[in-house]
Structures are given as C-alpha cells and as structure tokens.
Amino acid sequence: MSKKSKKKNKQKSGLDSNTQSSGLNGQPKIGKEEYEAEIFKLQVELVKLQDWVKTTNARIVIIFEGRDAAGKGGLIKRIMERVSPRIFRVAALPAPTERQKTQLHAQRYIEELPAGGEVAVFDRSWYNRAGVEYVMGFCTKEEHRQFLRDCPAFEGFLVSQGIILLKYWLEVSKKEQHKRFLARIEDSSKRWKLSPMDLESHRRWYDYSRARDAMLAATDTAASPWYIVPSDDKKRARLNCIAHILSSIPYEEIPFTPPKLPPRQKAKGYVEPKQKHRTVPQVW
Fold first, then answer.
1. For FRET with 95, which of 16, 35, 86, 192 sits at 20 to 30 Å CA-CA?
2. DSSP, res 112
3. pLDDT digits (tens, 9 = 90+) for 175-197
C-alpha cells in the first residue's frame, strides 16, 4: 500500500453528512451519496489489493463472525462487488454432512484456505464450534473446550506459513437485532433470511453472549487478534471494516499499462442469418 493511500485511510472520511441522528453514539447519519462515494473509493483500493495479491502470490484469510443479523452478508457483498470471484472467494459452508461430522472439525474449512494469489473470505468459519454448535448442543462441552484450547495453535500455524489472517466480530445490539428480525418478517424479499436458527438465536441472546465472551477470551491472541466492528449502523460498519482491512495488509499499487484494443477483423462475406429467435419481452 502506498504511503499516500495509508495516510488517506488513517484520516477521517470528511463526509458531508446530514444532521439526522443515526442512533449510534449520537453520530450523524451518512447520506446515501456520500456513502456510495466513500465505498467506491474503498472498492478501488480493493481492486489494487487484488492486483497485488495476484502479482505477489499472497494468501489472505478474512473471517467474519457475529450474531445473526449483525450485517455480515451486506459487508461481504460490498467487498465482493468489484473484485474477481476467481481471486476473492467466499466460503459460506452449509451444515456438515454425516461424513464430515466424523472428520476433524477444521478439516472442511482447511479445504477452503487460499492458494497463492487468492483471498478467502469466510462468512462464518471454524468458529461455528465456539458459537452455534456449542449453544445449540451440536457439539459436546468437551469438544467446545478442546476447540478453544487448540484454535490459537491452529491459527498460529496458518500465520507461520505466511497466510495473512484477519478476524472480525460484527457486534450488533439486542435492540437493533430485534429490529432487523422484525424487518425480515415484514419484508417478503427478506423472509428467506429468517431461519429457525435465527429465531432460536433471538431467544438465546445471553447464551450467545456467554459463548462470544469465552471465544474472545480464548482466541484473541497476538498472532491472530480479533477486531470488533460495531454494526448497528451498517454503513459505518462497512466503511470502517473495509478501511481496516486495507490498512492491515502491506499492499502496493501495481503499475498498470493500458492495453491497446486490436482492430476488428474483416467480415469476409459474413452476413447475419435471417432467422427468427425467441426474444425476451421488452417490458421496460
């Protein structure tokens, strides 16, 4: 990352915000136009990061964890919006199969780790063992204890092999999570986001709080620290988290030489066939 870019990321955004309260520490809301302008700047930097990763064969793992409705999906969507899915890959694994349940817990996640020139973005990760699996009784207390004991060593090994590992916990308040769950019920376009597990997580707020506290206490290490992202304000969470990702990776802008488009080949007698094909209705 260039000195100019680093300095820019460390500075305040200087957004021309309106005076409406966001409800988060009394901060003003970020206007839509200002937000889109800032997110675009960060996405341009993500493209530069992508070029550096590809050129240097770097391997990066970014983990996003948090309660249901904390905003992980929207943040990941913004990260992926302008980068190549062949370099930035999202791993959002379903529930394990019966065979996978008999494997080492980390085994199916290891398969998703990046090769050289890749960024693996985990929408939940091996930390399922510390959260939903433990709270919902999908693992034993001993398996949970073993995970918290062994996880720092596992992540230390990843870092020792040259992988850049970043871990983010999106922290949503009880009031805001409740509000977002209600929105999912009322909005037909969001109902697919509300699963039985989500409903249970709403009920077991304090069980998840205790599980989170134990996870952070055991796995927030010098080699692989956790970073907390306040996410009641989704726009600020996205801007702040992406800016932190960029500032945490020592990337540099790779010089770009604009290619020259070659001229079109000559038709050499080609004529469009007079065939009728089905065309989608032009409603708009």
1. 86
2. T
3. 999 999 999 999 999 888 888 88
Mean pLDDT of 63-79: 97
| C-alpha to C-alpha distances, 239 to 79, 105, 191, 225, nearest whole angstrom | 10, 33, 26, 20
Q: What is the pLDDT of residue 4?
A: 47
Q: Which residues contact 175 (CB under 8 A, 6 or more apart)?
A: none
pTM: 0.88
**pLDDT at residue 276 in the model:** 87
Cα 118 to Cα 90, 107, 109, 215: the distances in Å are 11, 19, 15, 27
What is the Cα–Cα distance from 69 to 67, expressed in whole angstroms?
A: 6
Strands in 59-66's sheet, in edge-to-edge order, are 88-91, 118-123, 59-66, 164-171, 226-230
Q: How many residues does the chain have?
A: 284
Angle made by CA atoms 209, 91, 213, in degrees to the nearest 5: 15
Residue type for position 11: Q
Q: Report the amino acid identity of residue 161.
A: Q
Tokens 């780790």 — which residue? 113
Query: 121 with 64: CB under 8 angstroms?
Result: yes
Residue 16 has pLDDT above 50, yes or no: no
pLDDT for res 24: 55
Q: Cite the DSSP H helix spans in the chain.
A: 3-10, 32-56, 72-80, 98-101, 107-110, 132-135, 141-160, 174-186, 196-203, 205-219, 234-248
Domain locations in the chain as residue ranges: 30-178+205-248
Query: What confidence category does residue 28 fall into, taking pLDDT thresholds of 50, 70 and 90?
Result: confident
